[in-house]
Design a protein that fits this description.
The chain has 84 residues and is mostly helical. 36% of the residues lie in helices and 7% in strands. A hairpin with a 5-residue loop joins strand 1 and strand 2.
Length: 84
Amino acid sequence: MTSERSIGVLLTVGLLAVLAIHILEGHQTPASTRAPIDLSKLGPQVGQRVPDFALKDQSGKQWTRQSIMGPKGAMLVFVRSADW
């Protein structure tokens, strides 16, 4: 029963992926008509330090740049919630 359910889930996910690709391909602007994007205006660049900050997470805990830094640096990922 579990393997049948897993196969069903995989087939559903695969079908959704194919459908998403089909929809996106139909709505894409051809590359030749897109305006070039100036990446230097999108925020901090690779290797550049971000300014100090203090931000609260979804639980109200405050985080600073220093508090998230590890021995190899840090990576911030911002995810937009569906209910924003």
